[in-house]
Amino acid sequence: MRIELNQAIEMLNSHDNILILAHRNPDGDALGSGYALCRALRSVGKNAEFKYFDKIPKVFLELEACCENTDFEPSFVVAVDCADSKILGDFPDGRYKEKVDLCIDHHSSNTLYAKYTYLDDNAAATSEIILDIARAIGAEIDTLTAQAIYIGLSTDTGCFRYSNTTSKTMRMAADMMDAGINAGKLNRILFETKSKSYAALEAMALATLTKHFSEKCAIMHITLEMHEKSGTDETEIHALASLPRQIEGVLVGATIKEAEPGRYKVSIRTNPPVNASEICQIFGGGGHKRAAGCEIHGTLSEVKKQLLDAIEPFVRDVDPE
Amino acid sequence: MRIELNQAIEMLNSHDNILILAHRNPDGDALGSGYALCRALRSVGKNAEFKYFDKIPKVFLELEACCENTDFEPSFVVAVDCADSKILGDFPDGRYKEKVDLCIDHHSSNTLYAKYTYLDDNAAATSEIILDIARAIGAEIDTLTAQAIYIGLSTDTGCFRYSNTTSKTMRMAADMMDAGINAGKLNRILFETKSKSYAALEAMALATLTKHFSEKCAIMHITLEMHEKSGTDETEIHALASLPRQIEGVLVGATIKEAEPGRYKVSIRTNPPVNASEICQIFGGGGHKRAAGCEIHGTLSEVKKQLLDAIEPFVRDVDPE
Question: pTM for the full model?
Answer without folding.
Answer: 0.88
